[in-house]
Amino acid sequence: MTHYARPESSGDSTDGPSSGRRPTFTSWLRSRSDEELTALLRARPDLARPVPADIGALAHRATSRNATLRALERLDRFTLQVLESVVALGDDRLSEPVGALPADLAHGLGLTPSTRPGTDPLDAALGTLMAQALVWPDQGRLRPVQVLRELLPHPARLGPPARVPLAALPHGTVKRLADDLVPHSTAESPVESVATALSDPDRIRALVAQVDAPAHRLLDSLTWGPPNGTVTDARREVSLATASSPVDSLIARGLLLPTGDDTLTLPREIGLFLRSGSLFQDVGTTPPAFEGRSVEPDTVSRAAAGQAFVVLRAVEELMERWSQEPAAVLRNGGLGVRDLRRAAQSMDTDDTTTALLLETARAAGLLAPDDRLSGEWLPTREYDLWRESPPERRWSRLVRAWADSDRVPSLAGSQDSGGRVHNVLGPGLVRPAAPQARRDVLTELATAEPGTAPETESLMSRLAWRHPRRQSPLYTELVEATVAEAAALGLTGMGALAAHARPWLSGDEDASDALLSTELPQPLDYVLVQGDMTAVAPGPLVTELARELALTADVESTGGATVYRFTESSVRRALDAGRGVADLTAMLERHSRTPLPQALRYLILDMGRRHGRLRAGAASSYLRCDEPALLTELVGDRRATDLELVLLAPTVVVSGLTRAALMERLSRLGYHPVAESGDGTMRLSRPEIRRAEPDAGPSVEHTGDPELARAAVRALRAGDEAATIARVPVELPENSSAAARVNALVEVLERVLADERRVWIGYTDTDGRQVSRIVVPTRVDGGFLTAHDTTRDAVHRFALHRVTGVAELSADS
User: Cβ–Cβ contacts within 10 Å for residue 446, how many?
Assistant: First the structure.
């Protein structure tokens, strides 16, 4: 076992041997090395936001309730059991008021010290607890931080020390109990007399031997917790002479003590005796083994990479479609069910996966609502940049956004307490615990051997061991959702974590991208045009070709290959966007590995010949055509009687409708006019490409960056020096005018500046906080002090009227 020596004093003016006082948690924290403080801030990054002013402020924050609760959530089951053992055995209300010995912890946990250095699980757990400042050594013993006695009121499912419930009882009741148990005690008070008696194992053994079998069964039911039982009139007056029931006999002997009007509690000392010194029935130093099936790692990687490719293609397909035909934003800010189903059809997937991809795209900044009154879901400008990135980079950005998002897509379709349905992209899907649950699941999967696909129950068991304080129905729901979402996004394949996901988890995205790029299909710059008016893309296409083909043909099916179909409407769409017959033919000939079929050439030529024959203008509007027969046919068409057409000349017809309405109506009738400008030329334009501004993503807490943690430690040391350094105060005039006080301050600072010495100043910052600074003055003028602030390692300007005090540092500082 590791031996824990008493920490040496670090010059603390209030603690340590030189002052004759016991070391405190603050003095111990101050004695930690810079590397140890850096490790603390990395393990508990919330302690450095913002950076505390000094070590004392860090100690206060580290022992606060909320910060300690967050630290407890990071502990595994065994480390938590060790911590509970320290609290149970090191309670300052027990007979030993200075903490728990490591040897006592080993005995209470039923552990045998390892003979090999560095392999003892208790040493490792205690090292973790000390590194996270949850326990600290005092004269060779271990003490928990004070707040843990509040947060862990029943450590190891033990009751409180006997002194606690005894002190809450009426004096007469405790006096009667002391007279029965220790009639000739010389203790200062009845409470001390009874508590001392109940801490003696021999006395407890004798008391337990005096009760009957039913009382023994009652003690057995409380031995391993919970230590409380409910009875009627728990505070009844009972003595050894008047005890008439098993409960009365236990109360009369102090083996059960009242802690409420109807609650009896087994004192901690009695519980430890009944457990024969053991603290837990089951102590596991390692998590349960994974149970599942083995899959070839290469097969896992290929399956995951294939799913990653499907994700990229589905997101791109929908974003391109919504660029032209955006979905509407509901009043609550979400997406309607019909639009969700249309999106699922467009991406060729189910509603659940569609919800996941939409939420992920929004979290990645690729999708957002526009700022119009009606509101539409549109791709953002970030999408255009993302679209030009390599596929592996695009995938990495999507999964990083998913991992950091606090929204849970699987909750879409559920109802709140008022019966309102939660829509995709709408409110009600936020769960702050989601990012942590996702990282927990992926990190645990990474501990399995490559190719191991664990069963869900096995994964849940290991997570319950890793993070016992996080277990709840919500956490279980988040874990199950994470498993499904990780598979849908390509982080796992066939139930096992993919090879490219392992470096991604550790933050090495370059290594992850390198692995994924070898598995993803490479973008192609060709298609196979077939005789049935289709083109087959056997893999992902380069960006330019994909957009040109999407403009000229319609997607008919997706899968391992994408099938595009050429139709009259799709070719007309390309012509409306400004493409010519020669442009379309040349593009297809350039990118097709097969000869263009004659039927496709005829289709393009025929549509090009018919395109633009009929042109619309404003008269309210007019139609002009070089073929009189076509206008004569149109005017005589019974379906066009509502167009109010008048033949002005063999080649000109006017209408009472606006040009936009006339063109829309004629398109429905199959005539497909083209707009004409005032000079008679055709007005062709690409479809409008609209973009929205991306939403601001949620802030996510990650493990502390080592450089930031080291910088925080340097600031802490400097701040602590400013707070504790020996200094000689300089008297400033108190009752004179402000100008006189500033003048006196200037004289002191100029003297220090001339001697090139450091000086301590008290200062009121712009937030009204009183801070201490050690500075090296470089200039004093204009009512300001310019100095190098050693506390923040930067040059600052201090307003002289905000300086509250000044002190010269002692010669040995």
Answer: 15
* Range 187-192, long-range pairs (CB < 8 A, 24+ positions): 191/163, 191/166, 191/167, 192/163
Name the DSSP letter for residue 382: H
Dihedrals φ, ψ of 465, to 5°?
A: -75, -40
Q: List pLDDT tens digits, range 390-431.
A: 889 999 999 999 999 999 999 998 888 788 889 999 998 999
Residue 363 and residue 429 in contact, taking contact as beta carbons nearer than 8 Å: no
Tell me the mean pLDDT in the region 180-199. Answer: 85
CA dist 241 and 246 (Å) reads: 13
How high is the pLDDT of residue 560? 65
Secondary structure of residue 110 in the 3-state scheme: coil
Question: Edge-to-edge, what's the strand order for the sheet holding 652-655?
Answer: 646-649, 652-655, 621-624, 615-617, 674-675
Cβ neighbours, 10 Å, residue 677: 10
Rounded distance between C-alpha atoms, residue 423 and residue 498, angstroms: 31
Torsion of CA 292, 293, 297, 303, to 10 degrees: -90
Tally the C-alpha atoms within 13 A of residue 117's C-alpha that lie toward its C-beta: 1
Mean pLDDT of all residues belonging to the chain: 85
Q: What is the dihedral of CA 187, 191, 197, 198, to 10 degrees?
A: -160
What whole-number distance in Å separates Cα of residue 744 and Cα of residue 4? 52
Please give the Cα distance from 811 to 431 (Å, whole number).
Answer: 57
- Rounded to whole angstroms, what are the CA distances from 134 to 55, 62, 209, 422, 482? 16, 8, 39, 41, 31
Pair 759, 806: CB distance under 8 Å: yes
The CB density around residue 55, as the number of other CB atoms within 10 Å, is: 24
For residue 650, say if its preceding peptide bond is cis, omega within 30 degrees of 0. Answer: no
Residues 493 and 297: beta-carbon distance below 8 Å = no
Nearest Cα to Cα of residue 65 among 148, 132, 130, 153: 148
Token look-up 């009844």 returns 236
Q: Which residues contact 49 (CB under 8 A, 6 or more apart)?
A: none
- Of 140, 110, 429, 417, whose CA–CA distance to 275 is shortest? 110
Token pair listed for 558: 């997706």
Name the DSSP class of 156.
G
Inter-axis angle of helices 581-591 and 568-576, nearest 10 = 110
The set of residues, in sequence order, having a beta carbon less than 8 Å from that of 5 and lying 6+ positions away, is: 137, 140
By DSSP bridging, strand 615-617 and strand 674-675 are: parallel
- Label residue 276 exposed, middle or buried (CB < 10 Å: 0-12, 13-18, 19+): exposed
The one-letter amino acid at 83: L
pLDDT, residue 208, reads 92
Across 365-389, average pLDDT: 86
Measured CA to CA, the distance from residue 448 to residue 459 in angstroms comes to 10
Reading the block at residue 8, the tokens are: 């040496």
* Residues 632 and 647: beta-carbon distance below 8 Å: yes
- How many separate helices (H) and strands (E) can be counted in the chain? 33, 27
Nearest to 162 by CA among 234, 268, 62: 268
Measured N-to-C along each axis, helices 391-404 and 434-446 cross at an angle, to the nearest 10 degrees, of 120
Residues 6+ apart with CB under 8 A from 114: 120, 121, 123
C-alpha 252/C-alpha 239 separation (Å) is 5
Work out the number of other CB atoms within 10 angstroms of the CB of residue 806: 22
> Cα torsion at 129, 131, 135, 141 (round to 10°)?
100
Residue with tokens 């949850």: 134
Measured in residues, the chain has a length of 813
The span from the first CA to the last CA of the chain, in angstroms, equals 40
